[in-house]
Specification:
Layout: E1 17-23, E2 33-38, E3 44-48, H1 56-66, E4 72-75, E5 90-93
Parallel strand pairs: 1-4, 4-5
Antiparallel strand pairs: 1-2, 2-3
């Protein structure tokens, strides 16, 4: 019998960065998707947000499932990500509303690959 479930290692380490984005698309009905990609890699994960909710209660378990503790995580300013440091991650944020530089924060945080 074929095994249809593929087991993946977690993304990231203490030396690596994983970028995140939660998206649904503009003006389109659909489900919220959490995307994760590891820097210097094509290793990508996508998860559908349960019940179409993107709260910390939904996102943190998905992140813990796919990302190793101690990894640096880059996100936007979505409030649900604010608790990541309390869950053992290093957290950098980029403000996409910053008219001076909406893609890269002053400290180098970016989420452009996802």
């Amino acid at each position: 019998m074929w095994n249809l479930v593929r087991v993946y290692r977690q993304l990231g380490t203490r030396e690596q960065v994983v970028a995140f984005a939660e998206e649904r698309g503009r003006r389109v009905e659909g489900h919220w998707i959490l995307g994760m990609i590891q820097d210097q890699s094509e290793d990508l994960r996508l998860e559908v947000c349960k019940d179409n909710v993107r709260s910390a209660e939904v996102l943190v378990p998905l992140i813990k499932k796919h990302v190793a503790e101690g990894t640096t995580i880059h996100t936007d300013f979505w409030r649900a990500f604010d608790c990541l440091e309390g869950h053992g991650f290093i957290h950098g944020k980029v403000n996409h509303s910053d008219s001076n530089n909406p893609f890269v924060a002053e400290d180098g945080t970016r989420t452009q690959r996802i």
